[in-house]
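Repro case for the chain-ordering regression, as requested:
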Amino acid sequence: MQKLEATKKSSGCGGMIFGLIFVAVGLFTMGIIWATGDEEASCGIAFGGVFAVVGALVVLGGVWQWMGKLKVAEPEIFVSNVRPRIGEQVKVVYQQHFKGAVEVKDISIQLIFRESATYTQGTDTVTVHHDVVVARLNYPPSRYPAGHIIQDEHVLTIPLGGMHTFIVKNNKLRWLLTVKVDVVGWADLNYEFELKVMPEKVE
Amino acid sequence: MSKADILINLRGKPTYGGVMWFPPGVTLQGNVQVIANTNVNCRQLSVSLLWTTQGKGTRDMAAIGEQIIYRGMLSAGTPLYQEFAFPLPLYPWSYSGHYVSIVWQILVKLDVPWGSDPTGRAVFILHPNEPTVGF
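-- result from build under test --
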């Protein structure tokens, strides 16, 4: 079995940094206007205040997500073949460690075929995705004590009529294993792991 | 009016809509017929094997091979026939999706002085499975 590294994980750090910048800009703006002593600057102070409040909310969201990760470790995915062929059955071992006691509403593991297209619109670069869920596994709601480890083996099949992985600059066709852990009271934890499906068919 | 008309004929297995199908790794064979509408000095007549993406994203493409099959004068009304062959790669397979499609084609370009170059193209399907419906 080979371990897959997560290609995308929800950390909350990005949101926290973004929010802190907003708070800093808002407070700085308020401070500058306050220091000038202009009595008609209430609009500017209100504008800075709104900036700071929005930033604080974003920071709280990031902290909320980060706190969830203190209780639920990053999932580990092992597969029988990281480069499966079209039509191949892949054994998937899902391992999940709970660092703290949690109530989990849902855990879902999905095999997804994702199309991604990048294009420019004016000065912006936009990427759109289209996901096809090929297989889905769900765990029922449950309470897990601190230290509990889920370790299950599943078998997923790359469909015979499927397409191989294709990655070029602006257009991508990718196969992903996604894990979503929905913890009651905390932000959802989302992870993606990539399989490179080869342009060969199982005989 | 274009300086020449270009017809491309691929020798493969026709599928839905008349598009030819080829499995990966085989040799694609075909011929091109060029009929000049005026006397033309053909600097070169090239045949390219390429794939392009189509759909929402900015186009990606790759030319897999190119052959120069003729250089010289083309007389008005006199057809020129030339054969070509390309070994096909194993991938990428032809694909038609929601945002992304992969289209294989043979592109023929007649390079002429003083004017736009007449071109012709023939789309085909590269896939291990013979399509039962249109890609």
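Ordering looks correct now. The first helix of chain A runs from residue 13 to 36.
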